[in-house]
Amino acid sequence: MKLQEYHAKTLLARAGLPVPEWAVASSPGEARLQAETFLARGAGKVVIKAQVLVGGRGKAGGVKLAASGAEAERVAGAILGMDIKGIVVRRVLVAPAAEIEREIYLAAVLDRTERKILLMGSAEGGVEIETLAEERPDAIVRIHAHPHLGLLDWQARKLAFALGLGDHLKAAVAIAQGLQRVMVENDADLVEVNPLALVRETGPDGTPVLTLQCLDAKVTIDDSALSRHPGLEAMRDLDEEDPIDIEARRLGLSFIRLEGSIGCMVNGAGLAMTTMDLVKRAGGSPANFLDIGGGARSEKVANAMRLILAEPSVKAILVNIFGGIARGDEVARGLVEARSQQTRDVPMVVRIVGTNADLAAGILADAGGGIRTAQSLDEAVEMAVAIARSAEA
Fold first, then answer.
1. Lowest-confidence range among 92-106, 210-224, 334-348?
2. What is the spatial distance between Cα 174 and Cα 196, in angstroms, rounded to a whole number?
3. Alpha carbons 157 and 151: distance in angstroms, whole number
4. Which superfamily is assigned to 242-392 in CATH?
5. What is the overall mean pLDDT for the chain?
6. Which one from 5, 30, 103, 105 is the annotated catalytic residue?
7. Does the active-site annotation cover 6?
């Protein structure tokens, strides 16, 4: 689950990281009031930022400065309703504009290969880090946190010096360790600050000072851990989620939409991945990843079939069930029920083995046309790919 910037900043602020104050507006008038509040407190300008879960907001015109309440209202009016990479802007973040001296990139990310949290940083912040990592991998500093003790002091200091933050060592160490802490405490896959900026401010004695501040934030939460964080679930932005994904989550199904023509229904994530690999090897293309779980009942199977058929590109359906906890006859009844409710005549190839597979075979045989059965997975895959190719020809 991706969090909007203002929610991500909330998590960072809770952890004590230096995040400048901000406000969120959903109308131009609201943005004006918030801007006037910041300007009255001494801000020279405010920044208006589109809140969308995609990158490239600045390039798309979704980040603008304003020097007055009236200008903030006009800018917010232009940004709200804007389409950025297919997403309509419904909210903007309003914050005092920072006088940036230097930008740094810093993030904590889950390194699945090493099974550790990886701290990544670059002295060249404010850029697309993927491009920088590809073109200049030497510009990225990487340090793995200790799996039990977190990011150790010496590791954080090493990271700070590598990023050229020796003059701000204490603050840099606190921020780096804070990112790692936010990641662990919230079961996040990614906690990113880009830019982490050296901001010029006026000190208590009137002299200019440089402080480290988290000017932007991106956080991605592990969906599987949301049951442990009910407050985070409330931060989910349903406006930017695919309706199919929302429905799949409501039904308790693990579903990921792909771009192929063969809809796949499988019980078990590993078996689903294997099925998709075999489809690709046979020359086909999966339309989705769908794991109906180990003990799927007939109603759940029928719901899963509706999700698959919601994608117009699906030309064939491949069902691969290994009956352990799941009973083959229950799955077969669900398939027959789903077949009777189909509004599109999409051929279905079914392979069911294991618990009550013989009963399943009888149920499917009595169901009539439209459902073809296979004894092996290879046979089922070949049949589904041939059907899809014939439909696309």
1. 334-348
2. 13
3. 10
4. Succinyl-CoA synthetase domains (3.40.50.261)
5. 91
6. 105
7. no
